[in-house]
Each structure stands twice: as structure tokens, then as C-alpha cells.
């Protein structure tokens, strides 16, 4: 089936085409939700962020100028809103621990269990990073944005983004090594 470009859908949605609006929303709804879930750690917060971003999109779609890709622009809105949520709940650092991420393949039960445990461990360690570093890791690994695209979204230099990214990787590596040692000691 023919897949319409974002720009075509945007033009039609602005002109009042409900079907184009629905296609645009359905194209980005799941990636935005899972982005929010990984970043915020709570399904409720992820749904709240998704709803907030879609409301902003609804009100401001006509303001999209096309200076960057629509995905970058949309995730820029999500980044701003997510960081705002993280700042507001800084006093409440308690994050939800468990949630399910969709799995496209169906490996053996042992591989699924190991994968889930590893994913849970990585997610726990990501939550320990400062929000600025967590955001860069999320955008780079999970959303597949380039350093330049992330820099544009966050209005920072590429060097700052790279610095945050590599600092986060160093912290993650250390945290995961310590967590692995602790987990091995518990067996």
C-alpha cells in the first residue's frame, strides 16, 4: 500500500482532512509512547505525555515550518514536555519499575526471560542517569536520531550532545558492571 509522506499528511490535516490527521497520529503514537515510557518509567506518565504532545500537535500543526523533519519537530515537543515533567517530579524520584515493552520476535522462553531481565536492568540503570543524559541516550539509541538532529531539537551544540552521550555511556557501563557483579553474587 502507498505510504503518504508526512508533509502530504500535514497539508491535508491542516486543511481539515480527519483521515490524514488520524494517519499522522497513528504513525507517531506508538514511538512517542514508548519514548515517554523509557524516559519517564511509568505507563501513566507516558500516557500523560503522549496526550499532552498530541494536544500541542493539534493546536500547533499549522506552525510546523519544515525546517527539520516532522519527526524531529514532534520529538522536540516531546523532549521539552518530558523534561518539564521530570523537573516537576524531581521531589518524587520514585519511578515505576516494571512495564512490558513490545517484542516483535518470539525467541525461546529462556532467551525471552534473559532479554526481559537485561532490558529491565538497562531501564533501571537509565533511570539513574541525570535527565539530560538520559534524554540524549533515549534519542540516540531508541529513536535513532543523529547527534546533529538531537542538537537541533535541544538547541545545543553537537559537541555538548556528544559529551552528554559518552558521559552517559561511561556511567551506564559502570552501573551495569556493578549491577552484574551484585546479581552474580546473589546466585
TrEMBL record:
Entry's InterPro entries? RNA_pol_sigma-70-like, RNA_pol_sigma-70_dom, RNA_pol_sigma70_r2, RNA_pol_sigma70_r4_t2, RNA_pol_sigma_r2, RNA_pol_sigma_r3/r4-like, WH-like_DNA-bd_sf
Where is each RNA polymerase sigma factor 70 region 4 type domain found?
120-172
Q: Which UniProt keywords apply?
A: DNA-binding, Sigma factor, Transcription, Transcription regulation
| Residue stretches making up the RNA polymerase sigma-70 region domain | 24-90
- Gene3D superfamilies on file: 1.10.1740.10, Winged helix-like DNA-binding domain superfamily/Winged helix DNA-binding domain (1.10.10.10)
Regarding protein family, the annotation reads: Belongs to the sigma-70 factor family. ECF subfamily.
In terms of Pfam families, this protein maps to: Sigma70_r2, Sigma70_r4_2
Q: Which NCBIfam families match?
A: sigma70-ECF
Give yes or no: UniProt keyword Transcription.
yes
**What is the name of the protein in this document?**
RNA polymerase sigma factor
Species of provenance: Rheinheimera marina
Amino acid at each position: 500500500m502507498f505510504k503518504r509522506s508526512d508533509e502530504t499528511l500535514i497539508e491535508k490535516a491542516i486543511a481539515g482532512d480527519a483521515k490524514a490527521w488520524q494517519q499522522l497520529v497513528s504513525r507517531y503514537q506508538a514511538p512517542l509512547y514508548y519514548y515517554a515510557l523509557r524516559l519517564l518509567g511509568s505507563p501513566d506518565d507516558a500516557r500523560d505525555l503522549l496526550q499532552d504532545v498530541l494536544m500541542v500537535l493539534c493546536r500547533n500543526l499549522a506552525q510546523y515550518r519544515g525546517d527539520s523533519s516532522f519527526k524531529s519537530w514532534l520529538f522536540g515537543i516531546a523532549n521539552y514536555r518530558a523534561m518539564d515533567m521530570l523537573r516537576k517530579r524531581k521531589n518524587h524520584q520514585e519511578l515505576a519499575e516494571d512495564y512490558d515493552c513490545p517484542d516483535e520476535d518470539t525467541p525461546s522462553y529462556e532467551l525471552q526471560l534473559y532479554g526481559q531481565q537485561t532490558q529491565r536492568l538497562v531501564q533501571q540503570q537509565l533511570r539513574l542517569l541525570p535527565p539530560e543524559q538520559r534524554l540524549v541516550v533515549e534519542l540516540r539509541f531508541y529513536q535513532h536520531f543523529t547527534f546533529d538532529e538531537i542538537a537541533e531539537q535541544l538547541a545545543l551544540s553537537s559537541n555538548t550532545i556528544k559529551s552528554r552521550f559518552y558521559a552517559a555511556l561511561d556511567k551506564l557501563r559502570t552501573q551495569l558492571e556493578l549491577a552484574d557483579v551484585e546479581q552474580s553474587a546473589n546466585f
